[in-house]
Amino acid sequence: MIRARFHANADDWRPIKFPPPGPAWCTGYAADGSYSTVVAYAESEDQIREFWPEASNIEADDRNEITFTDRFPRPDWWPEGKHFI
């Protein structure tokens, strides 16, 4: 599993299919409004591109489990207590 940070559509950062493979959050927007910045859990960078075809500048690192924090809380649709894809 990876935790990826990438640029996505500025007008609608959400994935093109729902639900995405793991939790995802919009963390902000470019100052010029040209993209949003998304953090998402997935199995691979290919899976990020499957759900966000416009994804660019993908930075990913391997993770053993999903970590929720105050900044990245569990989305309402993600099962409580689930920390793996």
Description:
A hairpin with a 6-residue loop joins β2 (24-29) and β3. Strands 2-3-1-4 form a 4-stranded antiparallel β-sheet. The protein is 8% helix and 32% strand. With 85 residues, the protein is mainly β. It contains 1 helix and 4 strands. The N and C termini lie close together (7 Å). The model has no long low-confidence stretch (mean pLDDT 97). The radius of gyration is 12 Å and the shape is globular. The chain has one domain (2-62). It has one helix at 45-51; strands at 2-8, 24-29, 36-42, 56-62.
Quote the beta fraction: 25-35%
The residue fraction in helices comes out at under 10%
- Give the low-confidence spans: none
Radius of gyration in whole Å, from Cα? 12 Å
Our count of helices gives 1
Largest sheet: number of strands, sense, barrel closure: 4 strands, antiparallel
Mean pLDDT: 97
Order of helices and strands: EEEHE
Shape: globular
- How many β strands by DSSP? 4
- Widest beta sheet: strand line-up: 2-3-1-4
Count of folded domains? 1
Termini distance? Answer: 7 Å
Structural class: mainly beta
Topology at a glance:
Blueprint: E1 2-8, E2 24-29, E3 36-42, H1 45-51, E4 56-62
Antiparallel strand pairs: 1-3, 1-4, 2-3
Index terms:
globular; mainly beta; 4 strands; 32% strand
Compact summary:
The chain is mostly beta strands and 85 residues long.
